[in-house]
Amino acid sequence: MTEMLKGIAASDGVAVAKAYLLVEPDLSFETVSVSDTNAEEARLEAALEASQNELSLIRDKAVESLGEEAAAVFDAHLMVLADPEMIGQVKDAIREKQVNAEAALKEVTDMFVALLEGMEDNPYMQERAADIRDVTKRIIANLLGVKLPNPAAINEESVVIANDLTPSDTAQLNKQFVKAFVTNVGGRTSHSAIMARTLEIAAVLGTNDITARVKDGDLVAVNGITGEVIVNPTDDQVAEFKAAGAAYAKQKAEWALLKDAQTVTADGKHFELAANIGTPKDIDGVNDNGAEAVGLYRTEFLYMDSQDFPTEDEQYKAYKAVLEGMNGKPVVVRTMDIGGDKELPYFDLPKEMNPFLGFRALRISISETGDHMFRTQIRALLRASVHGQLRIMFPMVALLKEFRKAKAVFEEEKANLKAEGVAVADDIQVGIMIEIPAAAMLADQFAKEVDFFSIGTNDLIQYTMAADRMNEQVSYLYQPYNPSILRLINNVIKAAHAEGKWAGMCGEMAGDQQAVPLLVGLGLDEFSMSATSVLRTRSLMKTLDTEKMAEYANRAITECATAEEVLELQKEYVHFD
Ligand code: PEP
Ligand code: MG
Protein backbone atom coordinates (compact mmCIF):
# COMPACT_ATOMS: atom_id res chain seq x y z
CA MET A 1 0.00 0.00 0.00
CA THR A 2 1.28 3.45 -0.89
CA GLU A 3 1.92 5.64 2.14
CA MET A 4 3.18 9.21 2.29
CA LEU A 5 5.15 10.65 5.18
CA LYS A 6 6.75 13.97 5.90
CA GLY A 7 9.87 14.37 8.01
CA ILE A 8 12.65 16.87 8.51
CA ALA A 9 14.65 17.43 5.31
CA ALA A 10 18.14 16.81 6.65
CA SER A 11 20.40 16.16 3.68
CA ASP A 12 19.81 17.06 0.03
CA GLY A 13 19.34 14.41 -2.61
CA VAL A 14 16.58 12.25 -4.04
CA ALA A 15 16.54 8.45 -4.11
CA VAL A 16 14.22 5.57 -4.92
CA ALA A 17 15.42 2.18 -3.67
CA LYS A 18 14.56 -0.84 -1.54
CA ALA A 19 14.26 -0.46 2.22
CA TYR A 20 16.88 -1.93 4.53
CA LEU A 21 15.56 -2.00 8.09
CA LEU A 22 18.22 -1.28 10.64
CA VAL A 23 16.20 -2.16 13.72
CA GLU A 24 17.02 -4.49 16.54
CA PRO A 25 14.81 -7.62 16.36
CA ASP A 26 13.04 -9.15 19.34
CA LEU A 27 15.50 -11.49 21.04
CA SER A 28 13.37 -12.51 24.03
CA PHE A 29 13.12 -16.20 24.95
CA GLU A 30 11.83 -18.46 27.75
CA THR A 31 13.94 -20.71 29.91
CA VAL A 32 12.81 -24.31 29.24
CA SER A 33 14.10 -27.58 30.61
CA VAL A 34 15.49 -30.06 28.10
CA SER A 35 16.10 -33.76 28.45
CA ASP A 36 18.25 -34.27 25.35
CA THR A 37 21.25 -32.16 26.37
CA ASN A 38 23.35 -33.54 23.50
CA ALA A 39 20.90 -32.10 20.98
CA GLU A 40 20.96 -28.78 22.86
CA GLU A 41 24.75 -28.69 22.73
CA ALA A 42 24.57 -29.37 19.00
CA ARG A 43 22.17 -26.39 18.63
CA LEU A 44 24.69 -24.24 20.47
CA GLU A 45 27.55 -25.46 18.24
CA ALA A 46 25.53 -24.66 15.11
CA ALA A 47 24.71 -21.15 16.39
CA LEU A 48 28.36 -20.55 17.27
CA GLU A 49 29.44 -21.60 13.81
CA ALA A 50 26.83 -19.42 12.10
CA SER A 51 27.87 -16.46 14.26
CA GLN A 52 31.48 -17.02 13.41
CA ASN A 53 30.74 -17.09 9.67
CA GLU A 54 28.70 -13.89 9.92
CA LEU A 55 31.33 -12.07 11.93
CA SER A 56 34.16 -13.10 9.59
CA LEU A 57 32.17 -11.75 6.68
CA ILE A 58 31.37 -8.48 8.46
CA ARG A 59 35.00 -8.14 9.43
CA ASP A 60 36.20 -8.57 5.83
CA LYS A 61 33.68 -6.01 4.59
CA ALA A 62 34.68 -3.56 7.32
CA VAL A 63 38.36 -3.91 6.39
CA GLU A 64 37.46 -3.09 2.79
CA SER A 65 35.38 -0.02 3.52
CA LEU A 66 36.84 1.29 6.79
CA GLY A 67 40.36 -0.13 7.09
CA GLU A 68 42.08 -2.61 9.41
CA GLU A 69 41.98 -0.43 12.49
CA ALA A 70 38.24 0.17 12.48
CA ALA A 71 37.64 -3.52 11.83
CA ALA A 72 39.55 -4.53 14.97
CA VAL A 73 36.36 -4.58 17.03
CA PHE A 74 35.19 -7.60 15.03
CA ASP A 75 38.43 -9.45 15.79
CA ALA A 76 37.64 -8.94 19.44
CA HIS A 77 34.18 -10.39 18.84
CA LEU A 78 35.61 -13.41 17.06
CA MET A 79 37.92 -13.98 20.01
CA VAL A 80 34.97 -14.08 22.40
CA LEU A 81 33.33 -16.75 20.22
CA ALA A 82 36.44 -18.89 20.36
CA ASP A 83 36.99 -18.54 24.11
CA PRO A 84 37.09 -22.18 25.35
CA GLU A 85 36.65 -21.17 29.00
CA MET A 86 33.40 -19.36 28.45
CA ILE A 87 31.92 -21.74 25.87
CA GLY A 88 32.88 -24.71 28.09
CA GLN A 89 30.95 -23.18 30.96
CA VAL A 90 27.87 -22.73 28.75
CA LYS A 91 27.96 -26.42 27.79
CA ASP A 92 28.39 -27.40 31.46
CA ALA A 93 25.36 -25.28 32.32
CA ILE A 94 23.24 -27.00 29.61
CA ARG A 95 24.19 -30.44 30.94
CA GLU A 96 24.05 -29.72 34.67
CA LYS A 97 20.93 -27.58 34.72
CA GLN A 98 19.22 -29.32 31.78
CA VAL A 99 18.15 -25.99 30.27
CA ASN A 100 17.97 -24.69 26.73
CA ALA A 101 21.11 -23.20 25.13
CA GLU A 102 19.67 -19.65 25.20
CA ALA A 103 19.21 -19.73 28.97
CA ALA A 104 22.59 -21.36 29.65
CA LEU A 105 24.37 -18.87 27.41
CA LYS A 106 22.65 -15.90 29.03
CA GLU A 107 23.46 -17.09 32.54
CA VAL A 108 27.17 -17.64 31.85
CA THR A 109 27.72 -14.51 29.77
CA ASP A 110 25.86 -12.35 32.31
CA MET A 111 28.30 -13.59 34.93
CA PHE A 112 31.32 -12.73 32.77
CA VAL A 113 29.91 -9.32 31.93
CA ALA A 114 29.23 -8.51 35.59
CA LEU A 115 32.76 -9.61 36.52
CA LEU A 116 34.39 -7.44 33.86
CA GLU A 117 32.15 -4.46 34.45
CA GLY A 118 33.02 -4.65 38.14
CA MET A 119 36.58 -3.64 37.25
CA GLU A 120 35.50 -0.06 37.08
CA ASP A 121 38.79 1.69 36.53
CA ASN A 122 39.87 -0.65 33.76
CA PRO A 123 38.49 0.60 30.44
CA TYR A 124 39.96 -2.42 28.63
CA MET A 125 37.84 -4.80 30.71
CA GLN A 126 34.78 -2.58 30.27
CA GLU A 127 35.20 -2.95 26.56
CA ARG A 128 35.55 -6.70 26.76
CA ALA A 129 32.25 -6.72 28.63
CA ALA A 130 30.65 -4.80 25.76
CA ASP A 131 32.15 -7.29 23.28
CA ILE A 132 30.66 -10.25 25.18
CA ARG A 133 27.26 -8.55 25.27
CA ASP A 134 27.35 -7.93 21.52
CA VAL A 135 28.45 -11.45 20.64
CA THR A 136 25.87 -13.00 22.96
CA LYS A 137 23.18 -11.09 21.10
CA ARG A 138 24.38 -12.58 17.83
CA ILE A 139 24.48 -16.15 19.16
CA ILE A 140 21.00 -15.81 20.63
CA ALA A 141 19.72 -14.44 17.32
CA ASN A 142 21.12 -17.52 15.60
CA LEU A 143 19.61 -19.84 18.21
CA LEU A 144 16.24 -18.18 17.67
CA GLY A 145 16.64 -18.12 13.90
CA VAL A 146 16.35 -14.31 13.81
CA LYS A 147 18.55 -12.12 11.57
CA LEU A 148 20.51 -9.20 13.04
CA PRO A 149 20.89 -6.18 10.77
CA ASN A 150 24.35 -5.41 9.49
CA PRO A 151 24.69 -2.07 7.71
CA ALA A 152 28.27 -2.69 6.61
CA ALA A 153 27.14 -5.65 4.48
CA ILE A 154 24.62 -3.73 2.35
CA ASN A 155 25.54 -4.55 -1.23
CA GLU A 156 22.63 -3.31 -3.31
CA GLU A 157 21.05 0.11 -3.71
CA SER A 158 19.12 0.74 -0.49
CA VAL A 159 17.31 3.24 1.67
CA VAL A 160 18.29 2.60 5.30
CA ILE A 161 15.36 2.82 7.71
CA ALA A 162 16.14 3.18 11.43
CA ASN A 163 14.90 4.62 14.68
CA ASP A 164 18.08 6.67 14.92
CA LEU A 165 21.56 6.23 13.50
CA THR A 166 24.52 6.50 15.82
CA PRO A 167 27.66 8.10 14.39
CA SER A 168 29.24 4.63 14.22
CA ASP A 169 26.23 3.23 12.31
CA THR A 170 26.50 6.13 9.89
CA ALA A 171 30.23 5.60 9.46
CA GLN A 172 29.59 2.01 8.36
CA LEU A 173 27.24 2.98 5.55
CA ASN A 174 28.71 2.46 2.13
CA LYS A 175 27.80 5.46 0.01
CA GLN A 176 27.99 3.38 -3.14
CA PHE A 177 24.89 1.40 -2.09
CA VAL A 178 23.15 3.45 0.59
CA LYS A 179 21.27 6.09 -1.37
CA ALA A 180 19.30 7.62 1.49
CA PHE A 181 18.28 7.15 5.05
CA VAL A 182 15.09 7.84 6.93
CA THR A 183 14.73 7.78 10.73
CA ASN A 184 12.08 8.10 13.41
CA VAL A 185 13.99 10.66 15.48
CA GLY A 186 16.57 13.40 14.95
CA GLY A 187 16.63 16.78 13.26
CA ARG A 188 18.70 18.98 10.93
CA THR A 189 21.44 19.49 13.48
CA SER A 190 21.68 15.98 14.92
CA HIS A 191 24.97 14.33 14.15
CA SER A 192 23.42 11.74 11.86
CA ALA A 193 22.19 14.62 9.68
CA ILE A 194 25.57 16.32 9.67
CA MET A 195 27.21 13.04 8.70
CA ALA A 196 24.67 12.45 5.91
CA ARG A 197 25.51 15.81 4.38
CA THR A 198 29.23 15.06 4.57
CA LEU A 199 28.69 11.69 2.89
CA GLU A 200 26.26 13.28 0.39
CA ILE A 201 23.55 10.76 1.25
CA ALA A 202 19.94 12.04 1.10
CA ALA A 203 18.29 11.99 4.53
CA VAL A 204 14.89 12.62 6.03
CA LEU A 205 14.78 12.46 9.83
CA GLY A 206 12.18 12.79 12.56
CA THR A 207 9.34 10.93 10.81
CA ASN A 208 8.22 9.46 14.17
CA ASP A 209 7.31 5.97 13.03
CA ILE A 210 8.90 5.09 9.69
CA THR A 211 10.23 1.84 11.19
CA ALA A 212 6.65 0.70 11.85
CA ARG A 213 5.44 1.54 8.34
CA VAL A 214 8.13 -0.06 6.21
CA LYS A 215 9.10 -3.71 5.74
CA ASP A 216 12.47 -4.92 4.52
CA GLY A 217 12.48 -4.83 0.73
CA ASP A 218 9.61 -2.32 0.31
CA LEU A 219 10.31 0.28 -2.35
CA VAL A 220 10.87 3.72 -0.75
CA ALA A 221 11.11 7.12 -2.45
CA VAL A 222 12.97 9.79 -0.47
CA ASN A 223 13.33 13.50 -1.14
CA GLY A 224 15.91 14.97 1.27
CA ILE A 225 15.24 18.49 -0.06
CA THR A 226 11.53 18.58 0.79
CA GLY A 227 11.39 15.95 3.55
CA GLU A 228 8.88 13.79 1.62
CA VAL A 229 8.98 10.01 1.86
CA ILE A 230 6.70 7.61 -0.04
CA VAL A 231 6.51 3.94 0.89
CA ASN A 232 5.63 1.71 -2.09
CA PRO A 233 5.21 4.63 -4.53
CA THR A 234 3.13 4.30 -7.70
CA ASP A 235 4.91 4.32 -11.07
CA ASP A 236 3.98 7.97 -11.53
CA GLN A 237 5.42 8.89 -8.16
CA VAL A 238 8.63 7.00 -8.94
CA ALA A 239 8.92 8.98 -12.19
CA GLU A 240 8.27 12.23 -10.30
CA PHE A 241 11.00 11.52 -7.73
CA LYS A 242 13.43 10.48 -10.44
CA ALA A 243 12.76 13.74 -12.28
CA ALA A 244 13.40 15.70 -9.06
CA GLY A 245 16.66 13.75 -8.65
CA ALA A 246 17.72 14.63 -12.20
CA ALA A 247 16.90 18.34 -11.67
CA TYR A 248 18.98 18.35 -8.50
CA ALA A 249 21.90 16.70 -10.32
CA LYS A 250 21.68 19.36 -13.06
CA GLN A 251 21.74 22.17 -10.52
CA LYS A 252 24.74 20.59 -8.83
CA ALA A 253 26.57 20.50 -12.16
CA GLU A 254 25.94 24.25 -12.58
CA TRP A 255 27.25 25.02 -9.11
CA ALA A 256 30.32 22.90 -9.82
CA LEU A 257 31.42 25.50 -12.38
CA LEU A 258 32.08 27.87 -9.47
CA LYS A 259 34.64 25.59 -7.85
CA ASP A 260 37.64 27.81 -8.49
CA ALA A 261 35.76 31.12 -8.48
CA GLN A 262 36.11 33.83 -5.82
CA THR A 263 33.33 34.15 -3.26
CA VAL A 264 32.06 37.67 -3.90
CA THR A 265 28.76 39.43 -3.59
CA ALA A 266 27.11 41.38 -6.42
CA ASP A 267 28.90 44.51 -5.17
CA GLY A 268 32.27 42.74 -5.05
CA LYS A 269 32.70 42.08 -1.30
CA HIS A 270 34.51 38.87 -0.33
CA PHE A 271 33.26 36.46 2.33
CA GLU A 272 35.15 33.35 3.36
CA LEU A 273 33.40 30.05 2.63
CA ALA A 274 34.78 27.25 4.74
CA ALA A 275 33.81 23.62 5.31
CA ASN A 276 33.13 21.51 8.39
CA ILE A 277 34.88 18.15 8.61
CA GLY A 278 34.84 15.14 10.93
CA THR A 279 37.90 13.21 9.75
CA PRO A 280 40.98 13.79 7.56
CA LYS A 281 39.21 11.70 4.89
CA ASP A 282 36.73 14.57 4.41
CA ILE A 283 39.46 16.84 3.00
CA ASP A 284 38.94 15.54 -0.54
CA GLY A 285 35.32 16.71 -0.38
CA VAL A 286 36.45 20.10 0.97
CA ASN A 287 38.80 20.65 -1.96
CA ASP A 288 36.42 19.17 -4.55
CA ASN A 289 33.81 21.68 -3.43
CA GLY A 290 36.19 24.63 -3.60
CA ALA A 291 36.07 25.62 0.09
CA GLU A 292 38.55 28.30 1.12
CA ALA A 293 39.27 26.89 4.56
CA VAL A 294 38.25 24.34 7.15
CA GLY A 295 36.12 26.30 9.60
CA LEU A 296 35.42 23.41 11.96
CA TYR A 297 37.23 20.12 12.39
CA ARG A 298 35.14 18.12 14.89
CA THR A 299 37.97 16.15 16.50
CA GLU A 300 35.69 14.07 18.70
CA PHE A 301 35.24 11.62 15.82
CA LEU A 302 38.94 10.77 16.22
CA TYR A 303 38.06 9.64 19.74
CA MET A 304 34.77 7.99 18.77
CA ASP A 305 36.24 5.91 15.95
CA SER A 306 38.94 4.56 18.20
CA GLN A 307 39.05 1.65 20.67
CA ASP A 308 40.85 3.77 23.26
CA PHE A 309 42.00 7.37 23.72
CA PRO A 310 43.95 8.30 20.59
CA THR A 311 47.63 8.81 21.39
CA GLU A 312 49.54 12.04 20.81
CA ASP A 313 51.17 10.52 17.73
CA GLU A 314 47.89 9.26 16.27
CA GLN A 315 46.38 12.69 16.71
CA TYR A 316 49.45 14.44 15.35
CA LYS A 317 49.17 12.36 12.16
CA ALA A 318 45.49 13.23 11.69
CA TYR A 319 46.03 16.98 12.25
CA LYS A 320 49.09 17.01 9.99
CA ALA A 321 47.11 15.25 7.24
CA VAL A 322 44.36 17.87 7.42
CA LEU A 323 46.77 20.84 7.48
CA GLU A 324 48.78 19.45 4.58
CA GLY A 325 45.63 18.54 2.68
CA MET A 326 44.53 22.17 2.91
CA ASN A 327 47.83 23.40 1.51
CA GLY A 328 48.36 26.43 3.71
CA LYS A 329 44.70 27.47 3.86
CA PRO A 330 43.33 28.07 7.38
CA VAL A 331 42.16 25.09 9.42
CA VAL A 332 40.12 25.64 12.59
CA VAL A 333 40.45 22.60 14.83
CA ARG A 334 38.00 22.31 17.68
CA THR A 335 39.24 20.52 20.77
CA MET A 336 37.20 17.46 21.65
CA ASP A 337 33.50 17.97 22.26
CA ILE A 338 32.54 14.70 23.95
CA GLY A 339 29.29 14.52 25.87
CA GLY A 340 25.74 15.42 24.91
CA ASP A 341 24.88 12.87 22.22
CA LYS A 342 28.53 11.93 21.67
CA GLU A 343 29.70 9.15 23.98
CA LEU A 344 32.98 7.24 24.23
CA PRO A 345 32.61 3.56 25.14
CA TYR A 346 36.03 3.53 26.83
CA PHE A 347 35.51 6.75 28.81
CA ASP A 348 33.28 6.03 31.73
CA LEU A 349 31.26 9.17 32.39
CA PRO A 350 28.38 9.02 34.83
CA LYS A 351 24.90 8.86 33.27
CA GLU A 352 23.27 12.26 33.47
CA MET A 353 19.68 13.48 33.50
CA ASN A 354 20.52 16.30 31.08
CA PRO A 355 23.64 15.32 29.16
CA PHE A 356 23.47 18.42 26.92
CA LEU A 357 23.71 20.57 30.04
CA GLY A 358 26.22 18.40 31.80
CA PHE A 359 29.86 17.50 32.08
CA ARG A 360 30.94 17.79 28.46
CA ALA A 361 33.37 19.32 25.99
CA LEU A 362 35.70 21.95 27.46
CA ARG A 363 34.22 21.32 30.90
CA ILE A 364 35.84 17.88 30.78
CA SER A 365 39.04 19.17 29.17
CA ILE A 366 39.81 21.67 31.93
CA SER A 367 38.82 19.32 34.76
CA GLU A 368 41.18 17.04 36.62
CA THR A 369 39.61 14.02 34.89
CA GLY A 370 40.24 15.43 31.43
CA ASP A 371 43.55 17.20 32.02
CA HIS A 372 45.78 14.48 30.59
CA MET A 373 43.52 13.91 27.60
CA PHE A 374 43.38 17.66 26.87
CA ARG A 375 47.14 18.18 27.16
CA THR A 376 47.71 15.23 24.80
CA GLN A 377 45.44 16.86 22.24
CA ILE A 378 46.99 20.31 22.61
CA ARG A 379 50.51 18.89 22.25
CA ALA A 380 49.51 16.98 19.11
CA LEU A 381 48.01 20.17 17.66
CA LEU A 382 51.03 22.27 18.52
CA ARG A 383 53.36 19.73 16.91
CA ALA A 384 51.22 19.69 13.77
CA SER A 385 51.06 23.50 13.63
CA VAL A 386 54.18 23.77 11.47
CA HIS A 387 52.42 21.96 8.61
CA GLY A 388 49.90 24.66 7.75
CA GLN A 389 47.78 27.51 9.10
CA LEU A 390 46.37 26.14 12.35
CA ARG A 391 43.67 27.79 14.43
CA ILE A 392 42.52 26.22 17.69
CA MET A 393 39.00 26.60 19.02
CA PHE A 394 37.45 25.63 22.35
CA PRO A 395 33.83 24.39 22.44
CA MET A 396 31.09 25.12 24.99
CA VAL A 397 32.70 28.12 26.67
CA ALA A 398 30.39 29.87 29.14
CA LEU A 399 32.87 31.75 31.33
CA LEU A 400 35.99 33.77 30.67
CA LYS A 401 37.64 31.73 33.40
CA GLU A 402 37.14 28.57 31.32
CA PHE A 403 38.75 30.16 28.28
CA ARG A 404 41.67 31.45 30.37
CA LYS A 405 42.26 28.04 31.89
CA ALA A 406 42.27 26.35 28.47
CA LYS A 407 44.49 29.05 26.99
CA ALA A 408 46.92 28.61 29.90
CA VAL A 409 47.22 24.88 29.07
CA PHE A 410 47.93 25.88 25.46
CA GLU A 411 50.69 28.29 26.58
CA GLU A 412 52.18 25.78 29.04
CA GLU A 413 52.35 22.98 26.49
CA LYS A 414 53.77 25.36 23.91
CA ALA A 415 56.55 26.31 26.33
CA ASN A 416 57.13 22.63 27.20
CA LEU A 417 57.46 21.62 23.57
CA LYS A 418 59.80 24.49 22.81
CA ALA A 419 61.94 23.49 25.80
CA GLU A 420 62.05 19.97 24.34
CA GLY A 421 63.34 21.46 21.09
CA VAL A 422 60.15 20.78 19.10
CA ALA A 423 59.22 23.32 16.42
CA VAL A 424 55.87 25.08 16.98
CA ALA A 425 54.25 27.78 14.81
CA ASP A 426 54.12 31.23 16.38
CA ASP A 427 50.99 32.51 14.69
CA ILE A 428 48.35 30.06 15.93
CA GLN A 429 45.08 31.87 16.53
CA VAL A 430 43.14 30.69 19.58
CA GLY A 431 39.40 31.29 19.59
CA ILE A 432 36.15 30.02 21.03
CA MET A 433 32.83 28.75 19.85
CA ILE A 434 29.92 30.94 20.80
CA GLU A 435 27.21 28.40 21.50
CA ILE A 436 26.11 29.27 25.02
CA PRO A 437 23.90 32.36 25.37
CA ALA A 438 25.98 33.65 28.31
CA ALA A 439 29.03 33.92 26.05
CA ALA A 440 26.97 35.50 23.26
CA MET A 441 25.73 38.19 25.66
CA LEU A 442 29.20 38.86 27.02
CA ALA A 443 30.93 38.71 23.64
CA ASP A 444 32.38 42.22 24.06
CA GLN A 445 34.41 41.04 27.06
CA PHE A 446 35.46 37.77 25.42
CA ALA A 447 36.51 39.66 22.27
CA LYS A 448 39.30 41.38 24.21
CA GLU A 449 41.00 38.06 24.90
CA VAL A 450 40.25 35.66 22.06
CA ASP A 451 41.53 35.78 18.48
CA PHE A 452 38.20 34.88 16.91
CA PHE A 453 34.66 33.66 17.45
CA SER A 454 32.84 30.90 15.63
CA ILE A 455 29.12 30.85 16.31
CA GLY A 456 27.77 27.35 16.90
CA THR A 457 24.12 27.90 16.13
CA ASN A 458 23.17 24.24 16.56
CA ASP A 459 23.76 24.56 20.27
CA LEU A 460 23.20 28.31 20.57
CA ILE A 461 19.63 27.88 19.32
CA GLN A 462 19.12 24.76 21.46
CA TYR A 463 20.18 26.62 24.61
CA THR A 464 18.47 29.92 23.79
CA MET A 465 15.15 28.21 23.05
CA ALA A 466 15.63 25.54 25.75
CA ALA A 467 14.76 22.92 23.11
CA ASP A 468 16.67 19.64 22.80
CA ARG A 469 18.17 19.48 19.30
CA MET A 470 17.57 15.70 19.17
CA ASN A 471 13.87 15.82 19.99
CA GLU A 472 11.62 16.16 16.96
CA GLN A 473 8.64 17.10 19.10
CA VAL A 474 10.29 20.41 19.92
CA SER A 475 12.00 20.83 16.55
CA TYR A 476 9.65 23.72 15.71
CA LEU A 477 11.73 25.72 18.22
CA TYR A 478 14.83 25.37 16.08
CA GLN A 479 14.33 28.85 14.63
CA PRO A 480 17.49 30.30 13.12
CA TYR A 481 15.59 33.34 11.77
CA ASN A 482 13.91 34.19 15.05
CA PRO A 483 14.82 37.81 15.90
CA SER A 484 16.05 36.68 19.33
CA ILE A 485 18.69 34.52 17.68
CA LEU A 486 19.53 37.20 15.11
CA ARG A 487 20.06 39.75 17.88
CA LEU A 488 22.47 37.42 19.67
CA ILE A 489 24.39 36.82 16.44
CA ASN A 490 24.48 40.55 15.74
CA ASN A 491 25.83 41.17 19.23
CA VAL A 492 28.63 38.64 18.71
CA ILE A 493 29.69 39.95 15.30
CA LYS A 494 29.69 43.59 16.40
CA ALA A 495 31.65 42.72 19.56
CA ALA A 496 34.30 40.92 17.53
CA HIS A 497 34.65 43.77 15.05
CA ALA A 498 34.93 46.38 17.81
CA GLU A 499 38.11 44.61 18.95
CA GLY A 500 39.42 44.02 15.43
CA LYS A 501 38.69 40.28 15.60
CA TRP A 502 36.84 38.10 13.09
CA ALA A 503 33.58 36.27 13.61
CA GLY A 504 32.60 33.11 11.79
CA MET A 505 29.78 30.62 12.07
CA CYS A 506 30.11 26.85 11.97
CA GLY A 507 26.60 25.82 12.98
CA GLU A 508 24.26 24.51 10.28
CA MET A 509 22.70 27.97 9.93
CA ALA A 510 25.82 29.18 8.05
CA GLY A 511 24.90 26.98 5.08
CA ASP A 512 21.16 27.62 5.27
CA GLN A 513 20.30 29.48 2.07
CA GLN A 514 17.56 31.54 3.70
CA ALA A 515 19.90 32.60 6.49
CA VAL A 516 22.83 33.58 4.26
CA PRO A 517 21.34 36.97 3.19
CA LEU A 518 20.83 37.89 6.86
CA LEU A 519 24.33 36.82 7.83
CA VAL A 520 25.86 38.79 4.94
CA GLY A 521 23.85 41.77 6.17
CA LEU A 522 25.07 41.31 9.74
CA GLY A 523 28.69 41.28 8.50
CA LEU A 524 29.66 37.70 9.36
CA ASP A 525 33.25 37.19 8.13
CA GLU A 526 33.44 33.43 7.66
CA PHE A 527 30.72 30.88 6.82
CA SER A 528 31.57 27.26 7.62
CA MET A 529 29.19 24.54 6.46
CA SER A 530 28.94 21.03 5.04
CA ALA A 531 31.33 20.97 2.09
CA THR A 532 28.40 20.06 -0.15
CA SER A 533 26.71 23.42 0.56
CA VAL A 534 29.72 25.59 -0.37
CA LEU A 535 29.14 25.94 -4.11
CA ARG A 536 25.44 26.63 -3.81
CA THR A 537 26.24 29.37 -1.26
CA ARG A 538 28.88 30.86 -3.55
CA SER A 539 26.27 30.95 -6.29
CA LEU A 540 23.75 32.68 -4.00
CA MET A 541 26.28 35.25 -2.75
CA LYS A 542 26.88 36.45 -6.31
CA THR A 543 23.30 37.71 -6.33
CA LEU A 544 23.39 39.63 -3.00
CA ASP A 545 24.21 43.30 -2.47
CA THR A 546 25.83 43.88 0.94
CA GLU A 547 24.26 47.28 1.58
CA LYS A 548 20.81 46.02 0.79
CA MET A 549 21.38 42.96 2.99
CA ALA A 550 22.58 45.22 5.83
CA GLU A 551 19.33 47.18 5.59
CA TYR A 552 17.33 43.94 5.56
CA ALA A 553 19.20 42.49 8.56
CA ASN A 554 18.84 45.72 10.49
CA ARG A 555 15.11 45.83 9.88
CA ALA A 556 14.83 42.14 10.82
CA ILE A 557 16.40 42.70 14.23
CA THR A 558 14.66 45.98 15.00
CA GLU A 559 11.20 45.62 13.45
CA CYS A 560 10.32 41.91 13.35
CA ALA A 561 8.71 39.96 16.17
CA THR A 562 8.76 36.45 14.68
CA ALA A 563 10.78 34.22 12.36
CA GLU A 564 7.87 34.28 9.90
CA GLU A 565 8.01 38.07 9.74
CA VAL A 566 11.74 37.92 9.06
CA LEU A 567 11.17 35.57 6.12
CA GLU A 568 8.28 37.67 4.85
CA LEU A 569 10.50 40.76 4.92
CA GLN A 570 13.16 38.80 3.01
CA LYS A 571 10.90 38.80 -0.05
CA GLU A 572 11.48 42.54 -0.38
CA TYR A 573 15.24 42.02 -0.58
CA VAL A 574 16.07 38.59 -2.00
CA HIS A 575 14.79 36.64 -4.97
CA PHE A 576 15.70 32.96 -4.89
CA ASP A 577 15.80 31.05 -8.19
C1 PEP B 1 27.16 23.89 16.98
O1 PEP B 1 26.80 23.63 18.13
O2 PEP B 1 26.58 24.71 16.25
C2 PEP B 1 28.32 23.19 16.39
C3 PEP B 1 28.82 23.58 15.25
O3 PEP B 1 28.82 22.13 17.06
P1 PEP B 1 28.17 20.68 17.15
O4 PEP B 1 27.10 20.61 16.11
O5 PEP B 1 29.29 19.73 16.92
O6 PEP B 1 27.64 20.67 18.54
MG1 MG C 1 28.02 22.52 19.54
Description:
The chain is of the alpha/beta class. The chain has 23 helices and 16 strands. The strands form two sheets. It has an eight-stranded mixed beta sheet. Strand 15, helix 20 and strand 16 form a beta-alpha-beta unit. Helix 1 runs antiparallel to helix 2. The two termini are 36 Å apart. The mean pLDDT is 92. The chain binds phosphoenolpyruvate and magnesium ion. The site of magnesium ion has 5 residues, from helix 18. Pfam families: PEP-utilisers_N (PF05524), PEP-utilizers (PF00391), PEP-utilizers_C (PF02896). This is Phosphoenolpyruvate-protein phosphotransferase. Its EC number is 2.7.3.9. Its main location: cytoplasm.
Write the layout of secondary structure elements.
Layout: E1 3-6, E2 8-11, E3 14-21, H1 37-66, H2 68-81, H3 84-97, H4 101-118, H5 123-144, E4 158-162, H6 167-172, E5 178-183, H7 191-199, E6 202-205, H8 210-213, E7 219-223, E8 228-231, H9 235-256, E9 272-277, H10 283-288, E10 293-298, H11 300-304, H12 312-325, E11 330-334, H13 362-365, H14 371-384, E12 389-394, H15 400-419, E13 429-434, H16 437-441, H17 443-446, E14 452-455, H18 457-465, H19 483-498, E15 502-505, H20 516-522, E16 526-530, H21 534-541, H22 546-559, H23 563-570
Parallel strand pairs: 3-4, 4-5, 5-6, 9-10, 9-16, 10-11, 11-12, 12-13, 13-14, 14-15, 15-16
Antiparallel strand pairs: 1-8, 2-6, 3-7, 7-8
Bound molecules: phosphoenolpyruvate and magnesium ion (MG).
Active site: 191 (tele-phosphohistidine intermediate), 506 (proton donor)
Family: Belongs to the PEP-utilizing enzyme family.
Domain PEP-utilising enzyme C-terminal: 252-545
